[in-house]
Amino acid sequence: xxxxxxxxxxxxxxxxxxxxxxxxxxxxxxxxxxxxxxxxxxxxxxxxxxxxxxxxxxxxxxxxxxxxxxxxxxxxxxxxxxxxxxxxxxxxxxxxxxxxxxxxxxxxxxxxxxxxxxxxxxxxxxxxxxxxxxxxxxxxxxxxxxxxxxxxxxxxxxxxxxxxxxxxxxxxxxxxxxxxxxxxxxxxxxxxxxxxxxxxxxxxxxxxxxxxxxxxxxxxxxxxxxxxxxxxxxxxxxxxxxxxxxxxxxxxxxxxxxxxxxxx
Amino acid sequence: xxxxxxxxxxxxxxxxxxxxxxxxxxxxxxxxxxxxxxxxxxxxxxxxxxxxxxxxxxxxxxxxxxxxxxxxxxxxxxxxxxxxxxxxxxxxxxxxxxxxxxxxxxxxxxxxxxxxxxxxxxxxxxxxxxxxxxxxxxxxxxxxxxxxxxxxxxxxxxxxxxxxxxxxxxxxxxxxxxxxxxxxxxxxxxxxxxxxxxxxxxxxxxxxxxxxxxxxxxxxxxxxxxxxxxxxxxxxxxxxxxxxxxxxxxxxxxxxxxxxxxxxxxxxxxxxxxxxxxxxxxxxxxxxxxxxxxxxxxxxxxxxxxxxxx
Lengths: 264, 310
Hints:
The structure holds 2 protein chains of 2 kinds. Chain A has helices at residues 2-16, 19-47, 56-70, 80-87, 90-94, 100-130, 139-165, 174-187, 199-207, 215-222, 228-262. By secondary structure, chain A is an all-alpha fold. Chain A has one domain (2-258). The mean pLDDT of chain A is 91. Chain B is an alpha/beta fold. Chain B is built from 10 helices and 13 strands. In chain B, β8 (205-210) and β9 form a beta hairpin.
């Protein structure tokens, strides 16, 4: 546990050294937040009523929490593990008395932490300043929202970790990464809230892990999901986190055998 | 107690046999040089000792454990440096890498700090502690890698080409540190290298691997003796001198500048530098001398030639 905490802190510090990148990310997030908020408000105005449980203040909350979590949750994936598999440096990870998946997860939670503080919160505050935004309706929503954010980070990490590990078998995984990004970007509810999807697409989304990476925490924090529904939203996230972490363990083991075959 | 033990260890890669019935053992406290040409099977052996690579057949134990099945347990008890790979965190200050590794090895913070301070002092890395690893020079990074591998005071230190690419001074400092560290801690050392200086300064036993087989196991002097590689004593004399042809146990190899510089080869088992020097200086005035050690590549080549391989 202490190891996990220290690895987490290391991830935090590692990413906090790139301050300019954080600032650039925050700026981009804010600009896009402004554009998205304007578009979605226009859509709401033309509908003349709330859509899928979203009125104007919750829509604004949807947009700005989304922008805030964009850098926090690793939606677009990472390449570090893939690169280490390709160069053989993954062998060094196996020389440590820790599970590589757990070690990388700790590092990613640290990365998420600094991105939430350095990039997410400022964007969120800017959004709240410029627009009339709905805040979490209760202390329960705040607390569940915080847990849900952590789970979203874990789900996104675990999925990407599995994708990265495919490098054990494939020379180039860029195509798969791209497919993951496009599918994930759409289905996680980044562009439009999942409840706004047509039925068929919403069904697909709800059977996928992607809403657990963004839509679920946003729903809780925007106050669209309250009461008992909070428990089921978080429950779905827990399911995906556990399932994807378990899948990662299986693939990691197979990958290690593969490394043995190739000789690292 | 054997800290490393292999018996009939075999590893095949597709159709080629990288390691062929390798059998050897290393006792705790030994310092062993593991040498051979590229592709002879050195790295393959090390990977199997550390649990990265699964043997095709045969038996391997590291610290009495099965490295494949007990990877985590083995990782706690050994330290490994692959000269070409880093175990440090590239974009963090060096200090942080030590802190993380301490945690990875379940050391408490006080112990980590004390051990870091000691290693940093001995390796003279104090000024670099706050520097990001990516900004270290190769020599600094290599010292940091070794400190990182030793942080948890492992019983066995495995170094794969630790001095590759280092300048003379950096090599020297690294070797001096390793000698001192071993004296204090009694750490067992297994080292692969292309540098004869590493073997001479650090190892009391040499294993030569050739085409996946053990071609030699013994002392460095024994190795030189086996293949007839001899040490050379270069003597600079005060005046032009006739050939030093009659020194007992030594043979004249070459005489330069009218005998101002003469090179004598001698067998380290048969005579000593002191005896040769005493003999020469009783007759002539000696100004300076240097000793040339047998070249590692040369020694390995001779071993290969003797076993009928190229």
